[in-house]
Amino acid sequence: MNATAPGAVRVGYARCSTYEQDVVVQTEQLLALGVPAGRIYIDRGFSGTTRRNRGGLDQALAAVWPASVFTVTKFDRFARNMAETNHILTDLSDRGLLFGLGGSVYDWNDPFGRLFLQTLAMVAEFEANLGHLRTREGMALAHRNGKLKGKQPKLPESARRSIRRRYAEGEVSLADLATEYSVGRSTIHRIVHGPPTGQS
């Protein structure tokens, strides 16, 4: 499953779903894996469910060359979408590149390596979809209880709790939440950073 890449130069990628989330741990881990500081690319404020607008990922993918290793510390920092995962890893493989996950290196052309990475991609996408499902269920319940009528400026407390939890866990970004709940980004920001309902 693991491919050896003696002397190969690593290019690192780190992502956090919120601007406030710290990527120091990821960066330190990448440095420990031998990724040069100047070859670590970062995206802040983006979820991994889509590649769209992730400039750091685009830069990292452009910075690799044949026989180098594109490296991440955790798979869900890289992607949480199976279709895009397959597309990116196929492109890397076609360019003669390997994929590094922590201290292990995988070859997309190796059947066992591909199966392992596809399984990780499937799990990452499942976890992301599960979070979205919970949010939709909370919204549906709020609608049935008459607590959410049209595009009200205030979201029900159940939705606000879900937003705070998912944001704190790094599951989604402010922009993703704003789109999901059809509210402005400033509304999501106030929910995340303001006191819970009923508190001063």
From TrEMBL:
Residues 9-146 form the Resolvase/invertase-type recombinase catalytic domain. It holds the Pfam family Resolvase. InterPro entries: Resolv_N, Resolvase-like_N_sf, SSR_resolvase. Belongs to the site-specific recombinase resolvase family. This is Recombinase family protein. It comes from Actinomadura chokoriensis.
